[in-house]
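Lecture notes, unit on binding sites. The following record was shown on slide 14. It pairs a sequence with 4'-deoxy-4'-aminopyridoxal-5'-phosphate.
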Amino acid sequence: MKESMNTQQIEALVERWVRPEIKELSAYHVPDASGLIKLDAMENPYTWPQELRSEWLELLRTVDVNRYPDPQASAVTAALERSMGVPAGARLLLGNGSDELIQMLAMTLGGPGRTILSVDPGFVMYSVIAKFVGMEYVGVPLRSADFCLDTPALLQAMDQHQPALVFLAYPNNPSGNLFSEQELLQIIQAAPGVVVIDEAYAPFTDASFMSRIGDYPNLLVMRTVSKMGLAGLRLGLLVGASEWIEQIDKTRLPYNINVLTQASAEFALGHQEMFDSQTGEIRKQRTILFNALMAIDGIKPFPSDANFILVRMPKGRAQEIHGALREQGVLVKCLDGAHSSLSDCLRITVGTPEENSSFLQALTKVL
Ligand code: PMP
């Protein structure tokens, strides 16, 4: 950089032109996990058998990276329809991760004076993306004892704020619980705008709103392939009536799903049974890990229908324990300070039996 261009000049320009709400945000921070047992990001810990890997790599040889991808991603869309039990008549929209779909929804229904409503603590991207597009965000507190919905408060907030969009994660992140189906139906019926049921953790529960899409004019269901074991591909899907999808699709950047993702996801979804057995194993390990955590004095795990468990540590010690676990080679997520009802909480992703044992050993050592 030329010496004449001084930092003060740049800072003055940044100060003048970057939108105030963006300046307020901090960039999404992903901690370095090198060399650590990674139980912080809800990934599937299992890889593929060598044979399958070779078959996949052979397929990738045939992909032309000099060409733009299929703009409609037709083959992978058909594979997702089969794999995710999309009801007949519903349409799919694909995103570069479901994060991108949240952004497309906000761009389609948002704008100044419009509101996104969700629950707190909930998935952070709903409020972050509201900021990106200049929308208001209203987070209705969950009941602090068990992270259940406070339905009267939600109904009241919807009445007051008339949200264009309501996001509810089912199961919820970071608490891991499923909200009451009846209460969610009540919310869908009362909402003035769209309700998105975010089923990112669908592989770890039998509950779903997918089959109800045709029952309510304002219901959309969002899924991702991330948690089943394809987080690196970045592929999410939004499912709903074609009238909605047609509009939201207008905010999609052309070719948002790259050729490698399209080919790889279509291939992977052809091996659904392998993913089902991996996620089935994670469900079993979740129970084992939960019971082991329950048996430790002074901490409290919350029941989970997802591939992670929220755990309350002894008062005032979560950050220190998080650091000490890291020293012991295990990376988990510290949520202490993220929200008042998450004080003293860590979130542990369910790993392989060996990873979970290493975590439990480290935890008993540092407690
Ligand atoms: N929804 C929820 C509830 C999540 O927890 C996450 C990821 N942590 C996402 C959506 C985003 O998933 P992705 O962008 O990987 O599809």
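Take-home: The chain has a mean pLDDT of 96.
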